[in-house]
Amino acid sequence: MTTVVRPVAGRASAHRSSPGRFPGRSGPPAIPSAPRATGHRVGRGFAPGYHGELVSGVFATPGGTPRIGVLRLPWPEQGAAAEFAPHPGAQLYVRAASAAAAPARQAAETALGGIRAPWSGGRLTVHTEAEAPVWPVAPAVVRAVADAWGLCPGAAELATAVSEVDAPPGAARGGTGLVDAVDGSLIEAFEADLPPLLVLGFDPGDVPSGPGLDPDDASLADLAAGRRLRGLLRRAAVGRDAALFAAAATESTLLLGTHRPRPLAGHLAAALASCGALGLQSDRGTSLLGLLFPPDAPGLADRLARARTLLAGLGIHQVWQFTTTARRAG
Question: How does pLDDT run across 15-52, given as a tens digit for each residue?
Fold first, then answer.
């Protein structure tokens, strides 16, 4: 169902204000690197969703500080698309599904301030897939607003706008890279994008308990595991090797299980060969899981059928399937 959000005169006041946020509201000054918008057109933007994290662990930052780093698993079919038509005046009209309306407005106001647009009015339309999380809306809106004024937002501008709507850290960053799970800063960028993976996803609802990974209390084993994962990811990126990426995902899943025991994940990791899966992906903060397959593997249909049978035997009947390189039509 689509909801039309009534316009509000002028820009809304900041929900939060801290150094580094876009201007256009009380608080920080304008970002010097942000060009002033001049001409305008109907702008469009798209942002993919994510199926949680492909890999997470304790990694050293460029400065040597241990941090929780994550590499997210793209779910392009569950992304968000936005269209923004600027119009003189002080009213911003937002048309979006009810859950996406508020974050869309926040992201648009942030972006309009960041690019120093001559006016803040216009019509913003946001389309999301039925199962899409709300947070991909923010980078899609920022891209649409910037595109409307002939600009291309950089990583810093996207990260700022995404943070305005409480998106997961690193949600705005494209490409393949480890990002800090707290502030979204880049820990390491890899040489190539993630190779295609077919994901058979499911959510068994067994949310793990316990404190989880803690960089301030990381053991020598945690740090060693982080180094191994990093080495796997580097090799996988150089060779665009889906099997190595999947192996890193499985090792990450088992590492998480040493901190927050999850018998189901351990059982599935041990049963990968029985269904021909390359690996098992798990999200650090939820119960989301995904079996990983090469999308062009011989006998793929049989592998997927065996995987579904395996999951059904564990009482898991609701699954979904997607490829990480799929693109939204239009």
Answer: 222 222 222 323 322 333 344 455 578 999 988 788 88
* Distance, CA of 80 to CA of 197 (rounded, Å): 21
Q: What is the mean pLDDT of residues 172-180?
A: 66
Q: Which residue range is the domain that position 133 belongs to?
A: 2-11+37-163
- Residues 6 or more apart whose CB falls under 8 angstroms from that of 301 comprise none
CA distances for 181 relative to 14, 71, 169, angstroms: 24, 9, 6
pLDDT of residue 131: 57
Phi and psi dihedrals of 71, rounded to 5? -120, 115
190: nearest Cα among 63, 72, 280: 72
Beta carbons of 222 and 313 less than 8 angstroms apart: no
What letter would DSSP give residue 68?
E
Element (H, E) at 50: strand 43-60
Contact residues for 328 (Cβ-Cβ < 8 A; gap 6+): 46, 76, 77, 79, 81
Domain count, the chain: 2
We report the CATH number of the domain holding residue 79 as 3.30.230.10
Residue 217 lies in a domain: yes
In this structure, are 141 and 6 located in the same domain?
Answer: yes
CA gap 317, 311 in Å, rounded: 7
Contact 168, 183 (CB under 8 A): no
Q: What is the mean pLDDT of residues 55-66?
A: 89
Q: Are residues 159 and 202 in the same domain?
A: no
CA distances (Å), 293 to each of 3, 111, 171, in order?
38, 38, 24
pLDDT tens digits, 191-224? 777 889 999 999 998 876 766 788 888 888 999 9
Among residues 324, 212, 283, which one has the least CA distance to residue 52?
A: 283
Q: What is the pTM of this model?
A: 0.71
In the predicted structure, residue 163 carries a pLDDT above the cut 70: no
